[in-house]
Amino acid sequence: MNLAFLIGHFPPGAFGGAELQAEGWARRLAARHRITVITRRDPPSQPAIERRDGFDVVRLPVSRVPLARTKSDAVRAGLLDALAEAAPAVRAAVVAKLDVVPNGIDLPDAVAPPGGRVLTVGRLIPEKGMDVVIDAVAGLQGQLTVAGAGPERERLEARARRHGLEARFEGFVDRERLATLLREAWVVVLAARRGEGLPNAVLEAFAEGRPVIGTPIAGVRDLIVDGVNGLIVPPGDPHALRDALARLSHERGLAERMGRAARETAAAYAWPRVVPRLEAALERWAAR
């Protein structure tokens, strides 16, 4: 089957969880299908056409056309609700052609004992709520690691200094370094205000047996079960986040129990579990 992946950026270069997922899917599906990745040529020095790992990468001039995210069940439901209002006549046809397959994750063989740091991962932009994380961790005099790059870095570093917070800004990290940072952490925080699909950061934390404190936005709600494998707090609320961190820290055995549940959640998203789901969807589409 001929398959095309449409993605804003593609490794190497600037990339995040969505781009890593596209690369992982393309590599795994190339053994059975003809895969073409269509992405931006950004920076212009990148080759326009490239073949790697058994698939083709086609880079086109930069486009700023926004795309709808449909990589989680919560986002799928929201998209169909919006479609019902805007174009109810075509909703049924879209439902018949819309399948959601979750992100895949490499599951480590074993879980390392937790370290002592709070870890947050993501682009340093206002939507990710890194300022909220800094304020919350500072309220507990904790140790914070921030993994990610972006235009807000200087402002966030200054905020941490004003608090006297022991914060380490790692910048962009590769997968090997991220695994190290997860082992150094005892909890991972995703304080996004908006703009998430099915966050890789949550899956990666779960795979390492780390509980996650997140906000109740689409995608996160598909992964975090409040009080089971993590905690849910309102977006933009450093006091609620601080209280959640304090609860995990002080309630005996809670972080450990949630870490075990997180690992069990991650197991359902291991690549050998999710690839057959997409193959099944492709077979259904081919049959139609």
Describe this structure in words.
With 288 residues, this protein is an alpha/beta fold. Helices cover 43% and strands 17% of the residues. The chain has eleven helices and ten strands. The chain has helices spanning 17-29, 73-86, 88-97, 130-139, 153-163, 175-184, 200-207, 220-223, 238-250, 254-267, 271-287, and strands at 2-6, 34-40, 49-52, 55-60, 117-121, 143-147, 166-171, 185-190, 212-214, 230-232. It has a six-stranded parallel β-sheet, sandwiched between helices. Strands 1-2-4-3 form a four-stranded mixed β-sheet, with helices on one face. Strand 8, helix 7 and strand 9 (212-214) form a beta-alpha-beta unit. The radius of gyration is 20 Å and the shape is globular. The relative contact order is 0.13. This is Glycosyltransferase family 4 protein. It holds the Pfam family Glycos_transf_1.
Short synopsis of the structure:
The protein has 288 residues and is of the alpha/beta class.
Quantity of strands, as a count: 10
Main sheet: strand order = 7-6-5-8-9-10
Count helical runs.
Answer: 11
Q: Which strand-content bin applies to the residues?
A: 15-25%
Mean pLDDT figure: 90
Q: Share of helix among residues?
A: 40-55%
SSE string = EHEEEHHEHEHEHEHEHEHHH
Characterize the biggest β-sheet. 6 strands, parallel
- Rounded to the nearest angstrom, the distance between the terminal CA atoms is 13 Å
Structural class: alpha/beta
Radius of gyration: 20 Å
Shape by Cα distribution: globular
Low-confidence stretches: none
Pfam families: Glycos_transf_1
InterPro entries: Glyco_trans_1
GO molecular function: glycosyltransferase activity
Protein name: Glycosyltransferase family 4 protein
